[in-house]
Write a structure and sequence with these properties.
alpha/beta; 9-stranded mixed sheet; 4-stranded mixed sheet; elongated
C-alpha cells in the first residue's frame, strides 16, 4: 500500500516537471495571480508591466489608485480580470498588449476611473456603450490601433470626457457626436483624429461651433478631398490662431485630380477675410466675441477707441460675448475690438464693419426699379422702330372691285387706317367728302402728298365721270 502511494506521487511529480508551461498557463488563466510576487508595489501604485501576462485575474487591494498592465500579452479584457470593485482606481494602463477584444463589462469594477490608456493595441471596433460604466473618465487614449468602426453611442455616457485620442487608426468619419455632446461642457479640451482615413469633413457643422471647441479638434494628415469649403474652414481657423490649425499648418493637405498631399492653404480659392461684416442702414447687428477659451472677461471698444457706448444704440449682451449695434448708420462703420482675458490667457478680436448707405430692402427696390425702367425704354424703342419701318397693309376695294396700280394716290394711303363700311356707301361717302373740301385743296394735290391722311379711309378708286366734271 505504501509502495503504491509512493509510485503515484513520483508519477505526478514527473508529469509536473515535463509540462511546466501547462502549470503556469493554468495558474495565470484559472487562478488568482500573486501580484506581490509578479508586480512592483509602491503605496497605492501597482506596476505589472512587461511580466509576460496573458489573460489575467487579480485580487488587488481596494486602495489601488494606479494599475499598470502595459507591455504584456493580454489579448482580451473581460469583467473577471478583477474579483472585487476597485473604487479607488483612477488610472489604468493597458497599452502595448495586442488587445483585440473589450467586453462591455470590462470596466464595471472601476467606476471611478479617470485615465485609461488603450493605445498600441489591435482593437478594430468600438461597440455601443462599450465605455458605459466610465462616467468619470477624463482622458481616453486609443491611438495606434486598427479601429475602423465607431458606434455613435460608444462615448455617449462619458459625460466627464476631456481628451479623446483617436489618431493613427483607420477611421473614415469624424465622430461629430463627441463634439455635439460636449459643446455645452466647460472642460472639453481635445479630439484628435489625425492620421486616419477621413476624406470628407462636416464643414458646415464645424464652422457653426464655438471657437473654444474648434480650437481642440485636430484632423491633419488625413486624405481629405480638396474643395474651397475645406479651404475656407482651414483658412478661418488659421487666421483666428486656433492651435489645431496653426500648430500643424504644413500637415493640412488634400487630394484632387490625381494630385496628392497638396497644401490646403495653397488652393486657388477666394481669399478669406474672417472678421469683416457687412450691413445696411437701420439694421441691428450682433458682433460675436468668439474666443479660444470659454470663460473669459471681455470688454469692447468702438471705432475711434471709444469705450462709452451711445445711448440706445450699442449694448453689451451675455457678459460681453456679444455687442449689439443699431439701428445702424453710415458713421457706425469701422473696427470694433473685443479684449478678453482670464488671468493666464488673453485673446483679442478685431471686427471690421462696413455699413452701406441704403437700407437692405431699399437697395433691392432700387434695383427692381432700374430694371423696370430699362425694360420700358427697350419696349418704347421697339415700338418706335416698328411704327417707322413696318408699314401696315390696308385692303381697299373700289365700288367696281378694281384698283389702279399706278394711281399716284396710292402713297397717300400708306398710313391710313380705315373703318369698315358697306360696299354701297363708299361712293356716296367719297363724293360728299370731295365737295366739302374742294375749295381748300385740290384733290390732285392731295393725292400727290405722301403720308397725308386720306379722309376717305379706303384705297384710291376710279372717280365717276360725273364727279370729275363737277
Amino acid at each position: 500500500m505504501l509502495g503504491a502511494s509512493r509510485g503515484c506521487f513520483i508519477l505526478l511529480l514527473h508529469l509536473a516537471l515535463l509540462f511546466p508551461g501547462v502549470r503556469v498557463n493554468k495558474l495565470r488563466k484559472g487562478k488568482l495571480l500573486d501580484y506581490k510576487r509578479l508586480c512592483v508595489c509602491a503605496g497605492n501604485i501597482i506596476s505589472c508591466s512587461n511580466v509576460g501576462l496573458t489573460n489575467v485575474t487579480f485580487d488587488l487591494p481596494e486602495y489601488t489608485a494606479v494599475l499598470d498592465l502595459s507591455f504584456n500579452s493580454i489579448s482580451e479584457l473581460r469583467a473577471a480580470w478583477t474579483i472585487k470593485d476597485l473604487k479607488s482606481l483612477e488610472k489604468m494602463l493597458l497599452n502595448n498588449n495586442g488587445l483585440t477584444f473589450l467586453s462591455s463589462e470590462a470596466f464595471v469594477h472601476v467606476p471611478q476611473l479617470r485615465y485609461l490608456d488603450l493605445s498600441y493595441n489591435d482593437l478594430k471596433l468600438l461597440d455601443e456603450f462599450i465605455f458605459e460604466p466610465l462616467e468619470h473618465l477624463e482622458v481616453l487614449l486609443l491611438f495606434k490601433n486598427r479601429i475602423s468602426q465607431i458606434d455613435r453611442t460608444a462615448f455617449s455616457t462619458m459625460g466627464a470626457l476631456q481628451k479623446l485620442y483617436l489618431s493613427h487608426n483607420q477611421i473614415s468619419r469624424l465622430p461629430l457626436e463627441v463634439l455635439k455632446e460636449r459643446s455645452k461642457q466647460d472642460s472639453f479640451k481635445l479630439l484628435d483624429v489625425s492620421s486616419n482615413k477621413i476624406k470628407v469633413l462636416p464643414v458646415q457643422e464645424l464652422q457653426g461651433m464655438r471657437a473654444w471647441i474648434k480650437n481642440s479638434v485636430y484632423f491633419h494628415n488625413n486624405p481629405l478631398t480638396c474643395s474651397c469649403e475645406l479651404y475656407n474652414l482651414v483658412a478661418i481657423w488659421h487666421l483666428r490662431g486656433l492651435g489645431s490649425a496653426s500648430d500643424f499648418a504644413g500637415n493640412h493637405t488634400c487630394s484632387e485630380s490625381g494630385k496628392k498631399n497638396e497644401k490646403i492653404l495653397d488652393l486657388n480659392c477666394t481669399q478669406v477675410n474672417i472678421l469683416k461684416k457687412e450691413a445696411y442702414l437701420e439694421q441691428t447687428l450682433f458682433l460675436d466675441c468668439d474666443t479660444r477659451q470659454k470663460y473669459m472677461n471681455k470688454s469692447w471698444v468702438l471705432p475711434g477707441n471709444i469705450t462709452e457706448f451711445p445711448t440706445n444704440r450699442s449694448d453689451v449682451k451675455d457678459g460681453g460675448n456679444y455687442l449689439s449695434v443699431g439701428p445702424l448708420k453710415v458713421e457706425d462703420s469701422g473696427v470694433y475690438t473685443c479684449y478678453a482675458t482670464n488671468g493666464s490667457f488673453s485673446d483679442t478680436l478685431h471686427i471690421s464693419l462696413v455699413v452701406y448707405n441704403y437700407t437692405k430692402r431699399g437697395g433691392l427696390d432700387d434695383l427692381k426699379t432700374a430694371y423696370t425702367t430699362l425694360g420700358a425704354c427697350v419696349i418704347s424703342v421697339v415700338l418706335i422702330l416698328a411704327y417707322l419701318y413696318v408699314t401696315p397693309r390696308c385692303c381697299a376695294y373700289c365700288s367696281s372691285g378694281t384698283m389702279e396700280k399706278d394711281d399716284p394716290g396710292e402713297s397717300l394711303h400708306s398710313s391710313t387706317v380705315s373703318l369698315p363700311m358697306s360696299h354701297g356707301d363708299r361712293g356716296a361717302e367719297a363724293g360728299a367728302f370731295v365737295f366739302r373740301h374742294g375749295a381748300s385743296q385740290d384733290i390732285k394735290d392731295l393725292q400727290e402728298q405722301n403720308g397725308r391722311l386720306n379722309p376717305i379711309g379706303e384705297e384710291d378708286e376710279e372717280w365717276p365721270k360725273e364727279s370729275r366734271k363737277t
